[in-house]
Each structure stands twice: as C-alpha cells, then as structure tokens.
Design brief:
The complex is a heterodimer of chains A (378) and B (551).
Chain A lengths: L1 H5 L3 H8 L3 H10 L4 H13 L3 H14 L4 H14 L2 H14 L5 H13 L3 H14 L4 H13 L3 H14 L4 H13 L3 H14 L4 H15 L4 H14 L4 H13 L3 H14 L4 H13 L3 H30 L4 H13 L3 H14 L4 H12 L6
Chain B lengths: L1 E2 L6 H10 L15 E4 L27 E5 L8 E5 L5 E6 L3 E4 L1 H4 L8 E7 L8 E6 L4 E5 L5 E3 L12 E7 L8 E6 L10 E4 L2 E4 L11 E5 L4 E3 L1 H4 L8 E7 L8 E9 L2 E5 L5 E3 L1 H4 L10 E2 L3 E4 L8 E4 L8 E7 L2 E4 L1 H4 L10 E7 L8 E6 L6 H4 L10 E5 L5 E3 L6 H4 L4 E7 L8 E6 L5 E6 L1 H4 L1 E8 L11 E6 L2 E6 L8 E2 L4 E6 L3 E8 L5 E8 L2 E6 L8
Parallel strand pairs in B: 3-36, 33-40
Antiparallel strand pairs in B: 1-40, 2-32, 3-4, 4-5, 5-6, 7-8, 8-9, 9-10, 11-12, 12-15, 13-14, 15-16, 17-18, 18-19, 18-21, 19-20, 22-23, 23-24, 24-25, 26-27, 27-28, 28-29, 30-31, 31-32, 33-37, 34-35, 34-38, 38-39
The chains are: A mainly alpha (378), B mainly beta (551).
Chain lengths: 378, 551
C-alpha cells in the first residue's frame, strides 16, 4: 500500500532521489510519460558521469516537449559532458533566447558551453549573471574556483571555495579544493585543516589524501611523516593517475632519509608512466645519492629528452593561451609534439584546428599521420 | 695587516647620540634584538624608480630597477647607487648621517638609458671601484676616474652587450688577477611584439614564455680590453632568460663557479674547471628545478652557509606559487632541496620574490635570510582580489640547526610596509657594525632599512680585503673565522640578489664571543693568510701578503 503511493506522485520522486539509480531507472521505465521522472533519470545519469545515457533519455524528450527550457538545459548539459559542444550550445541558446530561460542553472551551463568553445569572456559574463541570480549555486561556485585556480588566481579561488563550503559543507571536492588553495597560498595550517575535513568526509578520496599528505609534509615532514605517508598511500590506491601522489611520496621518503624506498617508488612511477618527467629527474637524483651511477645516468638521459620537449612546448602553449584562435601556432605545436614522439599531445591540437577549419590540408595530413602512429614513442 | 681605528665605533656612536643625529634604537621585539628603520627619505635618498610607462606595465616596464652599495670615493663610507631611468642616480654618503645627490657631478646624469642593474668591482686594479650598468639594449662599463666622476669605457674596452641585460657580476674566472665580467640577458622584447593579454577584462602583461630567450655573455678581462669569451667558456649553454647571477666557490676547489637564476627556465649552475671553462651541472647536482621538480621563475639568488657546515648553500627567489628554493650543499657536488625543512619554502610561496640576501642581521654568527617581494602585474588585485602588487618584504632569522623563523612583522613598522620590491643590496652604510639593507621599489622611492640594534645583539668584525697578485677588489677571497667555538665562512662578493651590488666588506657576527680565535683568508691567487686573537667590534683592512701561492 505504502509502496504504491510512493511510486505515483512527485513526492515519490523526492524519495527516489535519495535512493539508487536502479530504482530511478525502474520508475522511469514504468512511467515513460512522466516528465519529472524522465528528467530525474537524466539528471541521475549525469551525476553518475554517464552523459551518453542522459542524452539517450533526453533526445526524445526534447521532441515531445520542445518548449520546455529545463529539458533543453539538461540536454545541453548532457551533450556538453559528452563532448558535443556545438549541439549543447545550440540547445542552451534556444533555452535562453527562444524560451526565455534566465535561471542560474541555464546561464551556468551556457557559460560552460561558451568556455568549452574557447569563449572565455562570454563564459565569464554568463557566470557573473548566474551568480547574481543565485549566489549560492554550488556547482557554479566550485567551477569559478577551479577556473580561478587554473588562471593562478589562488586568492580568488580560495574565496569561491569558501563560499561553496558554506552552501555545500559536505562536499569533498570543496574541502579538497580549499586545502589546495590554502597550500598554494602558503597557509599550511589551514591547508591541513581543510584536507583533514575532506579526508574525513571521504576517507579514501585521492585528492583529499594528496593534499593532506602534501600539507602535512610541508608543515613538518619529520613530525607528521608517518601520517603524510599514509595519506599519500591512500591517494595512490584511489587514483587513476597514481604517479602524482607517488612522486610526492617518494619526495617525502627521500626527505626522511629512506632513499632506497624513494628510488623504488620512482622506479614504479616511470615504469607505469614513462612520460612522467619529474619522476625521472627525482629518480636520477635519488639514484645518484645511492651511488647507482648507471641508473642515475639513464634516468637523467630520459629526463633530458622529455624536458627538451616540454620547455619548447611550454612557450607555444603559453602563446596559444594568449591567442587561442591562432591556428598556425596551434598546428606548429601539434607538429612539435608529433615530431618529438608525442602524438597523444598532438591529437587534441589538430582536432581543435580541424574543428575551426575542417578543410585545412596541413591539419588533415597531420591528423592522418597521427592516426597511423597514435602511440607515444618519446 | 693594518688595523684601522674604526671610524665610527664607540666614539662616533657617542658623538652621534650627543648630536642627536640618530634616534636611540627602539626596543626590539622579544627574541629579535634589532629593528629595521627606513631612513632613505630622512637621509636624502631622493629618487623615484620610474617604470617608464603608464599602467598597465608591459614586461619591460615591470622588471626594474637596481640598487648598489659602493664606496665610489674611497672614503670608507658606502655610497648608494639607484639604477633606473632616465638615468642612474648616485648619492654620496656623508659620514653615515646623510646622502648628497652627486649624480650630476659624477657624470652619470648624462648617461641616458633604460637601465636595470649593476655590478661593482675594480676591473683595472687601480684601487677605485668601477661600475657596470645593465640595461635594455645598452649596457655600459664606467671607469671610476678617482675625482668623483665616471667615464664610459664600454666601446673602448671592447664590450658589446646587444641584449636586454639584467644582473651582472665581476669575478676572476681564470685566475689572472683581473676581474672578468658576466652579464645576464633576459628576453627578446621588441616594439611591435604582443605585450598584453586580457583576463576578466583587465589588461595584464604577457609573461616570459611569450618571448624568445636571450643568453648572457662572459667578457674576459685581458688588461687593455675585454674579450667576449661566452662560447669558448661553455657559457653559451645557458638556458637564457637570466635574471639573477652569482659567482661562488661552493665546492671549495678554489675557482669561481657561476649560478644563473632564469625565468621559467631551469637554473644554470656552471662549474668552473679553474681555467675559465664551464660546464652546466645544474641538472646533475639537483639545483636546476624546484623541490617539486618543476622549472621556476628564478629571479634573485644568494650563496650562504646557513647551517654552519662550512659549505655555502644556495637560495633562489622565484615567482608566486613556487616554494622559494633553498638548496642545501651536501658536498661532493650535490645539493638537496631543504626549504621545507628549514621553514622557508611554504612561508614564501605566495609571494613574487626578487632580491634576496643571506646577511647576518643580528650578529649571532648565522646568516639570516631576507627577501623583497612585489608582484609583476600592476593590476593583479583586479583579477585576484586577495593578491596585491606591492607585497611586504620577508625576513627569516636563522635559529640554528638548519632552520629559520619568520620575523618580518617583528622588526619595526617600516619593514611591514608593502613595496614593489626588486633589488636588494646589503652593506653597513653607517659603519656601526651591523648589516643594513637597501631595496628598490618600482614606482616608488628606494628603501634604506637601517639596522638598529644589530650591533648590540652580537659582537662583530668587519673586514676589508685588498688583493695584490689577486684582483685588487679581492673578489673571490674566502675567509674563515673561528670565534667562541663557532666557525663561519664567507666570500668577498658584490654580486648575487637581483639587479644589485652589495658591500664588498665582510661583516662577521660573533654573537657573545669576545675574541676571534682564528681568521684564515684564502686569496683568489691561492695564497693563504692566518691571524689569531683578534679583538671584537672593529674594522680591519687586510692586504694580500707577498707570499708564495699555495694553490
């Protein structure tokens, strides 16, 4: 009796929201005409990082409810998360300009689409408008913090994370982000506090543990060494890119005089990621200190090769950040990467050129060459 | 050895107090023992560091200017040089009581240019300190005529520096008794090149990655001329974008190695084979990158033995969000990043640091660490609200055991005041036995931070060295002092920091020791000289003995 009541009206959706994705799927399947039910399913797919499934649910929904802004906004968000920036942008524009949507969420996702299309200023204007509509929009605050951090504006990022923490105190992402910003601003005691909070919220979270380890090691590597080491090890266990926390673990071990263990960790790092430049450098120093001359020399040779490319690429990357529409420069960078054995880094640059200028013969030729040799050889 | 009656020791100090020329030292904060009081304005250092452009400042306008302590008239009092545009300014020290602007009479007022930094040394061994000015597409060597004037001898001596030169340094790299010259060059920046980017509608200058690197030059002093020996010396292997340079002999093999702090490039650490041939060993010895394995925005740098193991260590000031790098010299040609352990990595992280110095400000026998900070973007606060263009300088007192504690806000109100810090020079301008600081402030006046109380916090010994078969400035001489069971080592240098030249005299803090038990000099020529039982709180002049060399 109770169950039947729950499956019927919007209140049941509120209940479902707190339940499992499977429950929502079951409900949506049995209620194909329920717009709130289908929207909830799409939102749940997006929250579960399954944007393609969200697109599958929302595409027919837009056809059935073409003037419903919330459906357009959701589809825009789903398409954006799937990498289809153009289509996402189109739906979001319809929601704003044709359907009069002016809510913070739609403005935020349109800003994200603008940003993905390289329109940083337009995105920023939309974010500002969205923030005026809803100064407590958690996703917007987190994203603004991340954008500021990427632009090296750490004080601004810290401020956004602080605002986000006020509206989403249980967010691990926010607590870990706050820890990172405090660390970068030299406020180590604050970094430790935020990182501990993040780690308490999600004990195995890789970012929370990474910043906890780094903050503890920076505060006092001798006093907090064991705790920092444990945090790094948890971060390694939970990370897909294990070489970052492992690199810092190796540094901590080296600082604590455990050179042989540090060397082992770095050996693992360069085996798992033969492109991890910093690890080769650390490994070389570590091996040299241990008297492993040959290993040190070999790591240094490898480092030199990687470093030559990264120094050259850094300048072009920087210039592209300043002039993102300079296709000739982008192609030059792509060529530099490809000719130096990094087709994986060349590919996104060529793709971007082809998106802007699909017929560009040089870009097409380079794209074909990359397709023929897609694996890094550096 | 000639023991000079110290000009302003007890008697002068008494006179000054009687005459009311200087205030009684303010009580220092607990545990600090001295205060830093900015006396630039009251003592007559009337100069403004003009960026040469209206905001927003481009990369060329944001990097200056320089500062130097030098005794150009040989009267025993350090004069002050401010380096900027439209011309440098020279201020004569009138007995430590005031400064008189002698720019016009020195001839420097006629030297128009976009000047940045300076190096000082007696290149022709005539007993008078000469001056090298670095600048944008014009750098120049000025000969001290001995009558209060300088003459431009750049062309006549074969020096040509067609780059944007930043810091420079004199050292005798090939042991011929003559000072050679290294000039760091920064980046190729020309009219018509892109200058700005826009962030959130605010125009900001492009960074160094936007411009091709320029590499520095080594000029060998051949007596009648200087010869560009960059390529043959191996220094053409520098990464470029050099901002800070320092010679030193951290491996104690008797020759001068060269370290160059480069902006967004690996640090260059050139080891000298003793004949003026250099090999870049920065990657191998662990100084090329930060403790996080990354390239840094290297600005200023300084050698100093912070942990008392008699091996000079290296500190590098760099950009924001970079832990400032303290490299501990392990011996055997290797260094380890020790900033975290020493407490200077994270506390300095948010600031953009330029000038830096290891000077023992409290005379306890341990070098302290000073940094002057200031962002490069004049509009940084508009895009990053918590950040600021002027930033406060930082001072870390060496607490022994290889660590420092920050006392920036405990040494007086003047030192708390944020500045757009660039150059930092050290020297005892008032000859009272403690080190004072001179800092440039882009867009503002110079700051002369007088150390008040350092000479009471600990005893001291000031040494002025004069070479005979070595270069007359004695640059490169190494002095080891043993007092009260503590041994210290220092080298005679005027270089290091950023765009700066410092007092060539060595000021040893002796703490509570009443006597220097032993003092040993290793002259650049290889000669050694030892003295015993030297009284505290005095200035000595040491001349190189006419003894055979023990190289």
């Amino acid at each position: 009796m109770l169950a039947a009541w729950l499956w019927r009206e919007p209140a049941e959706l509120a209940f479902l929201r707190r339940g499992s994705l499977e429950g929502i799927e079951r409900y949506a399947l049995s209620h194909p005409d329920s717009l709130p039910g289908q929207e909830l399913l799409a939102t749940s797919y997006l929250d579960a990082d399954r944007p393609q499934d969200a697109v599958r649910v929302l595409t027919p929904l837009v056809e059935r409810y073409p003037v419903r802004p919330s459906v357009r906004r959701l589809l825009g968000r789903a398409l954006l998360s799937s990498g289809d920036v153009r289509a996402a942008y189109a739906h979001l524009q319809v929601a704003i300009h044709d359907l009069g949507a002016s809510d913070a969420d739609t403005l935020y996702w349109t800003g994200r689409a603008e940003e993905a299309a390289g329109q940083g200023d337009a995105a920023l204007a939309l974010y500002r408008e969205a923030l005026q509509k809803d100064p407590r929009h958690p996703a917007l605050l987190i994203h603004l913090a991340q954008v500021a951090a990427m632009g090296d504006r750490y004080s601004e990022a810290e401020s956004y994370f602080r605002q986000a923490a006020a509206v989403a105190p249980q967010s691990v992402e926010v607590a870990a982000g706050a820890a990172e910003m405090a660390f970068r601003l030299g406020k180590i005691a604050e970094a430790v506090v935020s990182a501990r909070r993040a780690q308490t919220l999600a004990p195995q979270d890789p970012a929370a543990n990474l910043w906890l380890g780094r903050a503890l090691a920076a505060e006092d590597a001798q006093q907090h060494g064991a705790e920092a080491e444990a945090a790094f090890r948890r971060s390694i266990a939970g990370s897909t890119e294990k070489w970052t926390p492992r690199f810092y673990l190796a540094q901590l071990l080296r600082e604590r005089g455990r050179l042989a263990e540090a060397e082992t960790e770095l050996e693992t790092n360069v085996r798992e990621n033969p492109l991890h430049e910093s690890s080769f450098y650390e490994l070389s120093l570590c091996a040299r200190a241990l008297g492993h001359t040959e290993r040190a020399a070999s790591a240094m040779r490898r480092f030199r090769r990687l470093n030559r490319l990264s120094l050259a690429a850094a300048q072009l990357e920087y210039q592209l950040k300043v002039s993102p529409r300079d296709l000739a420069l982008r192609l030059k960078l792509a060529r530099l990467y490809f000719r130096n054995g990094r087709p994986d880094l060349a590919r996104p640059q060529v793709d971007r050129v082809l998106r802007e200028k699909p017929g560009d013969p040089q870009a097409r030729q380079l794209s074909a060459e990359i397709a023929a040799h897609p694996e890094p050889t550096l | 050895m000639i023991a000079l009656p110290h000009r302003c020791a007890a008697a002068l100090a008494l006179l000054l107090v009687i005459a009311g020329c200087r205030s009684v030292p303010k009580p220092a904060a607990p545990g600090v023992g001295f205060q830093l009081v900015d006396v630039a304005g009251p003592l007559g250092l009337s100069y403004r560091y003009d960026p040469g452009a209206a905001p927003p400042l481009n990369i060329l306008a944001m990097m200056g200017g320089g500062a130097a302590f030098l005794d150009y008239d040989g009267d025993g009092w350090l004069d002050v040089l401010c380096v900027g545009q439209p011309h440098p300014a020279l201020f004569r020290n009138e007995g430590g009581k005031r400064f008189t602007d002698v720019t016009a009479t020195s001839g420097l007022a006629r030297q128009a240019g976009r000047w940045f930094g300076c190096a000082t040394g007696d290149y022709d061994n005539d007993g008078r300190v000469d001056l090298f000015l670095t600048g944008y597409n014009r750098s120049a060597l000025f000969h001290n005529q001995g009558d209060g004037t300088f003459s431009d001898v750049t062309e006549a001596l074969g020096i040509r520096v067609p780059c944007w030169a930043t810091s420079a340094a004199f050292a005798d790299v090939n042991h011929d008794g003559r000072l050679d010259l290294y000039v760091a060059c920064y980046a190729e920046f020309k009219p018509g090149m892109p200058e700005f980017t826009e962030v959130q509608g605010v125009r900001l200058s492009l960074g160094p990655d936007a411009y091709p690197a320029q590499r520095g030059q080594l000029f060998l002093n051949e007596g009648a001329r200087f010869r560009d020996a960059t390529r043959e010396s191996g220094l053409a292997d520098a990464h470029g974008k050099g901002l800070g340079v320092a010679f030193g002999d951290p491996d104690r093999d008797g020759d001068d190695d060269l370290v160059i702090a480069n902006d967004q490039q690996p640090l260059d650490y050139f080891e000298n084979d003793g004949r003026g041939h250099f090999q870049n060993v920065g990657l191998e010895n662990g100084t090329a990158f930060s403790s996080e394995g990354r390239r840094q925005g290297g600005m200023g740098l300084s050698f100093g033995d912070y942990d008392g193991d008699l091996r000079p260590d290296l500190f590098v000031a760099n950009f924001a969000d970079e832990p400032k790098s303290l490299y501990h010299n392990l011996g055997h040609g290797t260094y380890e990043a020790a900033g975290n352990r020493a407490g200077v990595a994270q506390t300095t992280r948010p600031w953009v640091a330029f000038g830096t110095s290891f000077a023992d400000l409290d005379n306890d026998g341990r070098p302290d660490l000073t940094l002057v900070n200031g962002h490069v973007q004049d509009a940084i606060q508009q895009v990053d609200r918590g950040n600021s263009y002027p930033q406060r300088p930082q001072l870390f007192l060496n607490s022994g055991q290889g660590s420092f504690r920050e006392v920036s806000t405990a040494v007086g109100d003047d030192f708390k005041h944020p500045i757009v810090g660039r150059a930092l020079a050290t020297g005892d301008f008032d000859n009272d036995g403690d080190a004072d600081l001179l800092a440039s402030d882009l867009g503002g006046a110079p700051h002369l931070y007088r150390n008040e109380g350092g000479n009471h916090a600990g005893n001291w010994l000031s040494l002025r060295l004069e070479g005979r078969s070595s270069n007359r400035s004695a640059i490169g001489a190494q002095v080891e002092v043993s007092a009260g069971g503590v041994r210290q080592t220092r080298e005679v240098r005027t270089d290091g920091s950023y765009l700066a030249a410092s007092d060539p005299r060595l000021l040893f803090g002796l703490g509570g020791a009443l006597l220097v038990d032993e003092l040993t000099v290793r002259w650049p020529s290889g000669k050694r000289q030892s003295l015993r039982n030297i009284a505290r709180n005095q200035s000595l002049k040491l001349s190189e003995p006419a003894l055979p060399a023990h190289r």
